[in-house]
Every structure is written in C-alpha cells, then in structure tokens.
Design goal:
Largest interface: A-B, 27 and 25 residues
Radius of gyration of chain B: 13 Å
Order of helices and strands of chain A: EEEEEEEEEEE
Radius of gyration of chain A: 14 Å
Strand content of chain A: over 45%
Distance between the termini of chain A: 41 Å
Largest sheet of chain A: 6 strands, mixed
Number of helices of chain A: 0
Number of strands of chain B: 10
Oligomer: heterodimer
Mean pLDDT of chain B: 89
Low-confidence stretches of chain B: none
Helix content of chain B: under 10%
Number of strands of chain A: 11
Helix content of chain A: under 10%
Distance between the termini of chain B: 33 Å
Strand content of chain B: over 45%
Structural class of chain A: mainly beta
Number of helices of chain B: 0
Shape of chain A: globular
Low-confidence stretches of chain A: none
Order of helices and strands of chain B: EEEEEEEEEE
Shape of chain B: globular
Structural class of chain B: mainly beta
Mean pLDDT of chain A: 90
C-alpha cells in the first residue's frame, strides 16, 4: 500500500535555530516528491519538487534531500523565523495507479521567540 | 482564473442539512483532488478525478459524501445529512496531470462547521 509517513508530528523550536523534518514513503513506482508549507487557514504552497535523480534541492532557507534507495526525504530549515510556523507536508507522486498522489499527514512546526 | 478557487470559504450548517462545496480548478488542469483536514490533523484524501476516467472514490468516508466534475472543469462535493464529525477544512487541488509533474495548485479551502 502506498504510504507517506512524516516525523515528528509536531515540533517547537526557538527563532534562529535549525530543524529537520523527515518523510518516509513506500510509494511505488516513484515519480516525484514535493514538500509543501501550509499556513493556518491557507492552502498548501509548494516549496520544492524532487525527482528520482535529484539528491538535494534548496529554496532559500529550505533544503530538501532525497534518498531514493531508502525512500526517505528530509526538509531542513536554516535560521528559522517566526513566519516559518506552519504545517509542512510531504507529498509523493506515483507514476501510475488510481490515485497517484499520496500525502503525508504533515509536521506542525512552531517557531517561538 | 489564476488559481484554484473554492467556495464558499466558510460554511456553517446545522446537523442533518445537506451542503455543497465548489471547486473551480485552473483552466486546462485535467486532474482534480478533494481532501479534507480536520482540526490538528493531516490531509485526508477523499476523491480524485482525472480527465474522463472514472473517479477514484476510495477516500469518501461514507455514502453521504459524493462528488461530481462536470465538463472536466468545475467540481462539487456534496455532503448529505451533515454530522458534527464532518466539520473540517475541505481542500481542492488541481494539476495538468495526476502525477503533478508540472505542479499542483491548492485552493484556500472551505471551512465547514456543523453545529
């Protein structure tokens, strides 16, 4: 069964600190993996997309990694800001199947001063 | 329009009433997903439309839930005889294709409150 598991479920960090969010998946055959940021009351917004051949991709203070062998991805946030407080959702696309898109349940990040 | 539009943005309804939620995807997007997000919970898949193919309804939680996509564009999610546990934010997303190779865009959601 195609699944995406994210950890931790929630995280609280001090402003300025770094953090890493994890995503493990069993989706097969794999197409791509995206990290989304969802602010409270808003729809998710894409941060990065990674395909099978990509190991690392950065978007400002966000760096995503992908290990296609172990089927793991991480999202590293550097020098966190209060505005980083949001839910971060890992979404994996399958190349085929009735429902190609598989969502993780997200990690709720709270950055405090 | 430039993005995925959902309406209404907020809906308060009495238990037992029927509600209809609307999603207007980006023009030309063939794939459309409905999800819901209960307070403090992750996204729960409801239904997936891809072009003219039969929709994947495997995520619909009960037969009170149904969805249509007319003309391959606008979609409506209908909840009959609403219950309090139906209270959630209902999100719609669309993409050029099911795999989202060209990206998928989410609407801002409809916040449904059943009282």
């Amino acid at each position: 069964k195609n699944q995406v598991e994210q950890s931790p479920q929630s995280l609280i960090i001090l402003e300025g600190k770094n953090c890493t969010l994890q995503c493990n998946y069993t989706v097969s055959p794999f197409s791509n993996l995206r990290w989304y940021k969802q602010d409270t009351g808003r729809g998710p917004v894409s941060l990065t997309i990674m395909t099978f051949s990509e190991n690392t991709k950065s978007n400002g203070r966000y760096t995503a990694t992908l290990d296609a062998d172990t089927k793991q991805s991480s999202l590293h946030i550097t020098a966190s800001q209060l505005s980083d407080s949001a839910s971060y959702i890992c979404v994996v696309s399958a190349q085929s199947g009735n429902t190609p898109l598989v969502f993780g349940k997200g990690t709720r990040l709270s950055v405090i001063a | 329009g430039a993005g995925v539009s959902q309406s209404p943005s907020n809906k308060v309804t009495e238990k037992g009433k029927d509600v209809e939620l609307r999603c207007d995807p980006i023009s030309g997007h063939t794939a459309l997903y409905w999800y819901r997000q209960s307070l403090g919970q992750g996204l729960e898949f409801l239904i997936y439309f891809q072009g003219n193919s039969a929709p994947d309804k495997s995520g619909l939680p009960s037969d009170r839930f149904s969805a249509e996509r007319t003309g391959g564009s606008v979609s409506t999610l209908t909840i009959q005889r609403t219950q309090q546990e139906d209270s959630a934010v209902y999100l719609c997303a669309s993409s050029w294709d099911g795999q989202g190779a060209y990206g998928y865009t989410f609407g801002s959601g409809t916040r449904l409150t059943v009282v």
